[in-house]
Design goal:
Blueprint lengths: L4 E4 L3 H12 L4 E4 L4 H5 L6 E2 L1 H9 L4 H6 L1 E3 L2 E5 L2 E5 L1 H5 L3 E3 L2 H14 L3 E3 L3 E6 L7 E6 L2 E6 L2 E4 L17 E16 L9 E4 L5 E7 L2 E8 L10 H11 L2 H4 L7 E15 L2 E2 L2 E3 L5 E2 L7 H22 L3 H28 L7 H14 L3 H12 L4
Parallel strand pairs: 1-2, 1-12, 2-8, 5-14, 12-19
Antiparallel strand pairs: 3-7, 4-7, 5-6, 9-10, 10-11, 13-16, 13-17, 14-15, 15-16, 17-20, 18-19
Helix pairs in contact: 1-6, 1-9, 9-10
The chain binds 8-demethyl-8-dimethylamino-flavin-adenine-dinucleotide (RFL) and P-hydroxybenzoic acid (PHB).
Length: 389
């Protein structure tokens, strides 16, 4: 088998790149380790930047997102008994779109089906080979059957735990990491959201977030110790703890109901440099992850895909490799800004187990300063709606 671009990982990054390239006549294949149902069962991102939405439109997969996604012009930050609004639209002229990663991935799979895109599910033991040569290839298994595809380029879109990054010799990369001493316990419930706009809350008991997928589907999170497991939290205990961390005016009107999904995600910041090894290019969570506090993860993946898509177009349409050569540098410049913002939002809003009284007063002062300064609010807002590509 032969193709132009071999993509490892059928999450949003891999599928979006595959769809964009296919529409420009660039042949590609996506190798995904899991079944489609498994990928669609993961509840993750909810907030999209306009740059991401623009890329979905360019890929011809934005029809449902534009119809069902909610435009949000602001977010709230609750702290010290107050609930204060960040006017994203007023501060930046831009807004964000609330549309779940599950729905977006479903739209991408359906678009790949319609165009007859090659997406292999349940691909076991995917391995890239000869990445430093001009003729790399990929091998994998489905059941007992073995396959091989030769390609011009390999794109690693297989997330943080994937095989792509691990295929790079350790002495050719540098890794940067910060692990946070807590996780987020998330609950999805078929209830009316407590607020039409997201509420990020800092409370002495820990962080909480009120988010949503639609006006009938709510997504809530609370900061929990890393030692907790989902079994430690009944629905009743979750709602009780969430209410304690929200201002009374919010807690009093919170509608609770049975959880339809409950999971714990550890928080981590991670970047690998460079994002290229020979003919392997890394994109999305395969190269960098952030704690979800700033809603940057999927949006940072989208900017990688944007740079990579244009670089591959320049290569195939003009014979110009400068985009590919500069990909890592260009992508990392934006990635690090997303890292900084996510780290800052996380430090601002979480309670660290080892923090001193001094640290906590500084956090409160940071919040007081934020809401006393249009410039400080403007900085938060421009990062939240997404810095330019
Ligand atoms: P993914 O989604 O992890 O997809 C990688 C795919 O690769 C497959 N795979 C392999 N395939 C073949 N061979 C192998 N060896 C493989 N190993 C893995 C996997 O099965 C999978 O299908 O990476 P991708 O595509 O780069 O997408 C990244 C996003 O998923 C991620 O950044 C976001 O979900 C992060 N995130 C958020 N991002 C935002 O921009 N806004 C948000 O509001 C937001 N909220 C969140 C989030 C992530 C969260 N969690 C659970 C980590 C909220 C949460 C709770
Ligand atoms: C979500 O709705 O899952 C969500 C929203 C905003 C975040 C993180 C997660 O910052």
């Amino acid at each position: 088998m032969k193709t132009q671009v071999g993509i490892i990982g059928g999450g949003p990054s891999g599928l979006l790149l595959s769809q964009l390239l296919h529409r420009k006549g660039i042949d590609n294949i996506v190798l995904e380790k899991h079944s489609r149902e498994y990928v669609l069962g993961r509840i993750r991102a909810g907030v999209l930047e306009h740059g991401f939405a623009a890329l979905m439109r360019e890929a011809g997969v934005a029809e449902r997102m534009d119809r069902e996604g909610e435009i949000h012009d602001g977010i709230f930050i609750a702290h010290d008994g107050l609930k204060e609004r960040v006017d994203l639209k007023g501060l930046t002229g831009s807004s964000v779109i609330v549309y779940g990663q599950t729905e977006l991935t479903r739209d991408l799979y359906e678009a790949r089906d319609r165009l007859g895109g090659k997406v292999v599910h349940n691909a076991e033991d995917v391995r890239p080979h000869d990445l430093e040569s001009a003729n790399p290839y990929l091998t994998w298994r489905v059941g007992d059957e073995r396959f091989r595809v030769d390609c011009d380029y390999v794109i690693g879109c297989d997330g943080y735990h994937g095989v792509s990054r691990r295929s790079i010799p350790k002495d050719r990369i540098r890794e940067y990491e910060r692990v946070y001493p807590f996780g987020w316990l998330g609950v999805l419930s078929r209830t009316k959201p407590v607020s039409p706009e997201l509420i990020y809350a800092r409370h002495e008991r820990g962080f909480a977030l009120c988010s949503l997928r639609s006006q009938t589907l709510s997504r809530y999170y609370i900061q929990v110790p890393l030692t907790d497991s989902v079994e430690d939290w009944s629905d009743e205990q979750f709602w009780e703890e969430l209410k304690r961390r929200l201002p009374d005016e919010v807690a009093d009107v919170l509608i609770t109901g049975p959880s339809i999904e409950k999971s714990i995600a550890p928080l981590r910041s991670y970047v690998v440099e460079p994002m290229r090894y020979g003919r392997l290019f890394l994109a999305g969570d395969a190269a960098h992850i952030v704690p979800p506090t700033g809603a940057r993860g999927l949006n940072s993946a989208a900017s990688d895909i944007y740079y990579l898509y244009h670089a591959l177009l320049d290569h195939y349409e003009k014979g110009d490799d400068s985009g590919l050569d500069r990909y890592s540098e260009k992508a990392l410049a934006r990635v690090w800004k997303g890292q900084r913002f996510s780290w800052w939002m996380t430090m601002l809003l979480h309670i660290f187990p080892d923090s001193s009284a001094y640290d906590r007063r500084l956090q409160q002062t940071d919040l007081a300063y934020l809401f006393s300064s249009q410039r400080a609010l403007g900085s938060l807002a421009e990062n939240y709606v997404g810095l330019p590509y």
